Amino acid sequence: MQMPGKGLERRFQRLRAVVSTWQFRYNQLPDQVVSRFDESDLDSIAKLLVEKRELERLIRDLNEFIRRWEDVPSGLDSRAAIRSGVGGDED
């Protein structure tokens, strides 16, 4: 039998793996831009810069999602926790 919360924990581990993959790709972009610059391939450079901005946004947003929701209690207590502001932004 699976322990409560283990499936949710695995999902957050997968989300962190996705962030790591995106960060790896993001870190490769400068070398690719230099390579395209050497080839005078301005169209590819423009596409890489768009990809860089998109990856920055995705990484930031998914990290924020993980930070906000990972520690929220699972199960029946989740609704009460959400209503009381646990895991949400304090204003």
What would you say about this model in short?
With 91 residues, this protein is an all-alpha fold. It has three helices and no strands.
Structural account:
The protein is an all-alpha fold and 91 residues long. The chain has a domain at 18-69. It is 76% helix and 0% strand. It contains 3 helices and no strands. The chain has helices at 6-38, 42-69, 77-84. Helix 1 runs antiparallel to helix 2 (42-69). The longest helix is centred in the N-terminal third of the chain and has 33 residues, at 6-38. It is elongated, with a radius of gyration of 19 Å. It starts with 5 loop residues before the first helix and ends in a 7-residue tail after the last helix. Keywords: Coiled coil. Residues 45-72 form a coiled coil.
Average of the residue pLDDT scores:
85
| Biggest pleated sheet | none
Strand content: under 5%
Number of strands: 0
- Tally of contiguous helical segments: 3
How far apart the termini lie comes to 40 Å
Low-confidence stretches: none
Write the H/E string, N to C: HHH
Structural class: mainly alpha
Question: Could you say which overall geometry the principal axes of the C-alpha atoms support?
Answer: elongated
Q: Helix share of residues?
A: over 70%
Radius of gyration: 19 Å
What attributes does this structure have?
3 helices, single chain, mainly alpha, 91 residues, 76% helix
